[in-house]
Amino acid sequence: MVVDGKTHVAQVLEKEVAEERYQEARRRNQTAGQVKQVPVKLERGMELFEISINLAPGASALFTLVYNELLERRRGVYKQTLVVKPGTIVDDLSVSASFAERQGFNYFAYSLPGSDTKLTSSSADQQTQVKASVSSREVVFRPSVEMQRKFNYKEGIAGEFNVYYSVNSDPEGGSIIVQNEYFAHFFAPAELDSLPKNILFIIDISGSMSGSKIHQAQQAMLKILDDLAIRATDKFNILLFDDKIEMWQRFPASTLAFEIDKAKGFVRDKLVSRGGTDIHLALTEGLDLLLSKQEKQSCNTADMVVFLTDGDPTYGITDIDRIIGDVTTKNKGRASIHTLGFGFNLNFGFLSKLSLRNQGFVRRIYEDVDAKEQLRNFYDEISKPVLCNVVAHYSTDVVTTDLLTVHDFPIYFDGKEIIVAGKTRLLDTHIDPASWDAKLTGSGANGMVDFVVPVGQVRVVGAESGIEDDLTEKLWAYMKIKSLLEEMERLDSEDDRAPLRTQALNMSLTYGFVTPLTSFSIVVDSRPEGAMEDMMRADNNKRYYAGGYPSGQACGWRLSWVLVVCSLLIGRLLSLQ
Description:
The protein has eleven helices and 30 strands. Helix 3 (212-228) links the parallel strand 15 (197-204) and strand 16. The protein starts with a strand and ends with a strand. The protein has 577 residues and is an alpha+beta fold.
């Protein structure tokens, strides 16, 4: 925050300490800022953090936020979203994004705010320009005043500028980047045969699903059934529920044409909203229907539940901890449960914990005109399981195994990416790429398979690489904190959760991450320079990180820099979301 020409750098504090400090600054009419992770239920892509600013009377401030984002690979593509919402017509508005990839690009496209059309080249009207080389791309969006007024005559553009791209695949077992004492391993095999899958769709048809939700779910299921017909080895079934359940069939069906046609008839006739919401009954009975007498996970078939709901349990057993516990105990790791939460009026934390404990993904489906497409896109993510029980292995002479991030994965879907990070036992200057013995093992459609990392794909990088110093260490810390928070969600006992929370908090403070446990905090204090820092160090011996801004270099493993600059004017509390 720049106030009166002086730059004040944020500190990362425990969330409660930062909130207390910010509120105290407000009471004193001091200029202060806070960035915290909270659910913001406004629009897509806006659920990560919010910025609150308090300005002293007569003050003005420039607030700048620089952050890292690890892009997730879905269906083989990375997606970078930039929200364009200036709130007014801007005479000279531009959005630019630059990408650098050592492996080179095999696909690059963008979509403009208010449109789903993917464009791959400069627009004829020159409002969007694309520049390309073998290993870089740059796209610049300069909407004219006339274009902005087409969105809203007064407020201008309000939407997302999206960039989509994929890179050329690394061979065999992927690639390893080593920097200082830390490494990151990226693995995304291509052209693997699909495992047969046995999939059960459990769909909420309670009264709250009435209207557009039930219609969109119905239309999405009809298209998904068409997609199922492509894979002759797959089996499927459908279970509908409100305060009771209705099964399509007692046993999974094949994907032959006559079975698909029967299922479509069931979906057209029976997806009608009605009673309460008995989630416990639906999931426990659904697992019996899916798994029958199967006692343990089978790598011969990928067993999956796709669970679609829009609300909390209202009928039968409604205690969410008991529901999660009973379902997890009954499942015994045999099936992955993927949960789709429809809309905002639902307990998303409950659905997240349910899927985390059962090797699944969770997604929020936004109740917009494209909800049907969102459902289909999620199904596409899980439609091709290709590996089971994937485990990453490294030489114990090179890697400190107890500091690895998650390195075993029950199921791997085509188009995803596995990332493992860790610490080496030696400085990177002493590491011989041939000594890693790095590989991934797993079970595929044709049995057990090894993916060996070629010696040439173990790359030690230094300052000359253009990659920000210690970036692999930050990536390791980010992934480690994320896994600690997820492990907390899998545990019920506060005694078991406490040491994980302490470890995640200490790492968040040390590395300067805003997490559910921490917040950024800035207070412009009138006391002599250094007094505030001394006070904070004395405050219960809390640790904090006050670092300078990173260099902004583009990185080869989809860690993108985003710069957000907000100009704030006189006199009142502003919340930027």
